[in-house]
Amino acid sequence: MNGAPYGRWLPWNASEHGGQIDSLIDVIHWFMLILFVGWGIFFVYCLVRFRQKPGRNAAYELPKGAASKYAEVGVAIFEGFLLFGLSVPLWSRYKTAPPPPEKRMDVTAIGEQFAWNFHYPGKDGKYGRLDPTLISSSNLLGLDKDGDPAAEDDIVSPELHVPLNQDVYVRIRSKDVIHSFAIPAMRVKQDAVPGMEVPVWFKPTRSSDEFREAMAREYSLDQPTPLFNKKKAGLILMEDYPASGEPVAHKGDALVNATVEKLLAAGIKTVRAAPRATMEVVCAQLCGMNHYSMKAPLFVDTPEQFEAWKTAQSAEIEIDLE
Ligand SMILES: [Cu+2]
After folding, report:
1. How many angstroms separate the alpha carbon of residue 199 from the centre of ligand 1?
2. Burial class of residue 115 (count of CB atoms within 10 Å of its CB; 0-12, 13-18, 19+)
3. 74 and 159 within one domain
4. Which of 16, 171, 254, 268 is 20 to 30 A away from residue 30, measured at CA?
């Protein structure tokens, strides 16, 4: 990881195709700058050249010349080329070639006012049945755990976990109004439309660990910052403490109350830590009063971290059922 997280005025890019989007943004901005300066110069030229003078009357007829006609036809052809020569083929190539099912990680993202929830098919690779009549505060998606065997191993999570360097295939749905599933760091954005299931796909090429390394800094253990929530684990440790001898806290531990107490008891007052979530899924469609708060943390895990997370999720489900 080199450079500032938010270099070039863009969020960092963590996906395989993101570089192409950034190049397109660059090209369009340079092109618009050239047009802006060109038109600006022409505008000022016209103001000076055709300004009011004694003995000169305004002409109301349009100029009739071949030059302007050729220029207009030329611009139309160029714009047609941009649309049908570049945009349409690129769009169809990207939108009609999803990664094959055996190579991708499948997940469904369901938007509601005002949260995202993620439904993983579990070990069997099959999504369990969702039944709107089963929706409750403890079963947010209405997953039919008793009626459908395919639902037994499914995972429902308010966090999106994806594996590093593997294609991710997301089916996007909505429970109520139109939302927009957006991951700035992955250069992905797609509307979530009630009654429809719209897929998007991307391949994460940089892990959360990498971004944590870039964002790590010293925190004093009694310092209040919004990230340093001792109950909710906004921060995680980037090193073992103490560095020598038997560590009381390990790299990767969440900075929650229990960890902080252990560290203070060992005489440690400052630690190097980083945000637990370095990327997020947001809603990019004004969907109601609390639209601004509609976001979910995104984690790009190494294959081992991803397996460990899935195992922990399945364990939690079993406890819930007892
Ligand atoms: Cu929304």
Report:
1. 17
2. middle
3. no
4. 16
